[in-house]
Amino acid sequence: MAKAGSPKNTKNKAKHSKLMAQKKKKEREKKDAHEARIKILKEKIKAQKEQE
Fold this sequence. Notes:
52 residues
């Protein structure tokens, strides 16, 4: 028998989408920052090796 009342999974759909977008953006920014940090370290190491 079908559920009476408001349909399931429509009430908070917009809120859920917003929160998931925030989460994905945060993870993406974290990943980009990590990659940038590694790139800088690699450049420093390369410069050190060239000096030696």
